[in-house]
Write a structure and sequence with these properties.
Number of strands: 45
Organism: Latimeria chalumnae (Coelacanth)
GO molecular function: cell-cell adhesion mediator activity
Shape: flat
Keywords: Cell adhesion, Cell membrane, Disulfide bond, Glycoprotein, GPI-anchor, Immunoglobulin domain, Lipoprotein, Membrane, Repeat, Signal
Protein name: Contactin 4
Subcellular location: Cell membrane
Amino acid sequence: VFTDPTRIITAPSNMDVTVGESIVLPCQVSHDPSLAVIFTWSFNEHLIDFTKNGEHFEKVGGQDSAGDLMIRNIQLKHAGKYVCMVQTSVDMLSAAADLIVRGPPGPPEEVKVEGITDTTAQLSWRSGVDNHSPITTYIIQARTPFSIGWQAVSTVPEVIDGNTFTATVVGLNPWVEYEFRVVASNVIGIGEPNPPSRKIRTEEAPPEVAPPNVSGGGGSRSELVITWEPVPEELQNGGGFGYVVAFRPSGTSNWMQAVVASPDTSRYVFRNESIPSFSPYEVKVGVYNNKGEGPFSLMTLVHSAEEEPNRPPSGVTAQSFSAAEVDVSWEPIKGNMSRGRVLGYEVGKFSKHSQKMENAFTLLYSRNFGNVFSFSPIKTLFLNKNIYFSKKVKVESTVITNTTIIIINLETGTNPKANLKTDASLLSVDLIFMLHVFLVHALQNKNKISNIKFHKVLYRRNKHSSTYEVVTNITSVELSLPYDGDYIIEVKPLSDGGDGSSSEQIRIPKLSSTDARGSGASNVSTLSAISTIMLSLTARSSL
């Protein structure tokens, strides 16, 4: 039986591609219809396993006469010779093509570091493969124990001698350990760097950076405390690094100096009994190492240690603002503060009986000097004033004795009960309270009783609704309350000292219309509530 010969009518051709591209190598044949055709592909003389290498290789075409090869996301490793092999039961033939892949350069080779000084290093290297695109630039990178990753460094122009390149790295820090690497690039991209060079340390040099943030202050009596921020190791420029602390009383010409040999130290304390408290000193801090001295910082003003305050504020007064609030005022400390800077004031209250300070309020010095303080009603109220410096040692003012403050407190004598009595049209609520009038110790031990002039009855439907009030000068009041809601009632006394403290809240529970027995009407919209308040006034002649 004679068959038509198999022929390749579209063969793969040589191609030039760039990394990342995708291509199709065609392989199409004409053959006898009675024969089955098998297509296989090899790459660099190795049969392609489409199952294992499916990420990049795929056989496409869709016909028994086409066995095209698709290569996706081409990489440098895919450059080489591709062969399409066609086989039938009676013949076999093949066609080949070369694939050139262009990409970024390979890593430079034989990188060496030579010619080390305090701020420079000379590098040499040989170019690596260019991957079919000429190398246009070399980038030198460096890292130290103090840097974050690799960073490009400055160089002088490269010297080219055949395939060998040299460059001098400049702007390095003295006495710092460096590693170097070189990266090549071309029009396609930046290549991979060479492995890091051996570690080298630049030579020593005198320091060039003074310590920042020179300051100070505080400490104990007869001390001058000077502080600064340590110079980082990468800026110390050599071994034997330390600090020179210079200081003098403000306005004088002769400097005193002290050497601090530890590079990590950030504090120096000068002690001398002759140092006045809170005295200004001109201060600067310099640096040195094995190679010599470096610069001093800018001069700054630092005060010697402060002492505790020796006098309290003056002009301390207090005035009743309301029944539970006091307006306290005082004169700020003025004049030459030779012992320290005023940081703040403190206002406190204490009971005459316990003599224990309670609820101290600390105020910044910059605050104004008239302040309202809220106190819970107490039997006896004293106020005093403290002043303190940075040492936090307080000096108390005298107790205020020129103000009468009247505190009124309304307390329940027993747990109040609401006795609900239904009538034809009346809801009667009996509330029993005890009213206590407390006194405050005043000038020349005078005691005063605040006269109750009115009572304020406050009521609201619930805790979220609006509050209504009724003021009366008698001891009872009649309120018209709808029966279909809960109500909260409380009572406050009123006097010259302002509002007194509230009684405990009394809750009137919700009633339905059927609770009004015998009313005979289902459309009753309101009930009348009478609150009878029995007051017992207790005046104490002394506290």
